[in-house]
Specification:
single chain, 273 residues, globular
């Protein structure tokens, strides 16, 4: 009964609601858009820590990458993965809605099909990514992998390792700390963790599969089904695209900050004092 009460259906929307109520009392100058953005990022941070922890547990428990089992590989997806992805689409929409409402857009005075369509168009890749995980990862996890490959499901959980750093970066910017050393260090961790756990992880999984069957890395794609290769490609492709965007953003930030002396971690309130 306890696991039912604490599953993601209640946990993630509940945390989001609590943060939305708590943050305005602490940061009284924040707008609704600020509160929703940070609330979304805090929940994302918590889910990422949970997913990464589950991934480490599953991966470290499976000596045989094909046949070894761990209950978290299936139950984490059902209890927390699917509820989170469903909730996060809604939270991203709210963040989009309040951002444009604060800017004074007339059509954002109330929720409508127009605001939903605008969100889907502007965030089409993120929405598609979430829907793909719901429609691909869930069926594969529950029905099509024939109780094999828990190790690789755990590896997919590890892709969330970069998310806490991404969320922390957004929160630091919201707090006015984008010019301090902590934001710079966090930006480096974003790039390193994103590359390691969202891009390099995929050739590593192919390498682990090849070692199990005693075949070289270049032969692994031909040993797997077309559906498996296409599924991995569908997950990997947007990660490469987002990594390129992160590198470009980091390079622009480096150029901008390279022209100014390093700033200590002070907020706008500190500067006014």
């Amino acid at each position: 009964m306890l696991h039912v009460l604490s599953c993601g259906v209640v946990l993630f929307p509940g945390l989001f609601f609590v943060f939305r109520k708590l943050l305005p009392s602490i940061f009284k100058q924040w707008t609704d858009a600020d509160v929703v953005l940070v609330s979304e990022r805090l929940v994302s941070f918590i889910h990422a820590v949970m997913a990464t922890t589950a991934g480490f547990i599953v991966v470290s428990s499976c000596d045989n990458v094909i046949t070894d089992r761990h209950w978290l590989a299936t139950y984490f997806v059902v209890w927390f993965g699917v509820p989170y992805m469903t909730y996060d689409i809604y939270a991203m929409y709210l963040s989009h809605y309040y951002r444009f409402r604060v800017k004074g857009h007339e059509e954002y005075k109330k929720h409508s099909l127009q605001t939903v369509n605008s969100f889907v168009r502007r965030e089409s890749l993120l929405v598609l990514h979430h829907i793909a995980l719901l429609t691909i990862l869930l069926p594969i996890t529950l029905f099509f992998r024939k109780d094999q490959g828990d190790y690789f499901i755990g590896c997919l959980f590890l892709t969330e390792l970069s998310t806490p750093f991404v969320s922390l970066g957004k929160i630091l910017i919201q707090l006015g700390l984008q010019d301090c050393w902590l934001h710079k260090a966090n930006g480096m961790m974003v790039l390193l963790s994103f590359f390691a756990c969202r891009i390099a992880l995929f050739p590593y999984m192919y390498l682990a599969y090849g070692r199990h069957y005693g075949i070289p890395l270049y032969s692994v794609p031909f040993h797997l089904s077309l559906a498996c290769n296409l599924g991995n490609l569908c997950i990997l492709a947007p990660q490469v695209y987002w990594f390129v965007l992160l590198c470009r953003k980091g390079y622009r930030l480096y150029q901008r900050q390279g022209k100014a002396p390093d700033s200590p971690c002070v907020t706008d309130n500190d500067k006014r004092d």
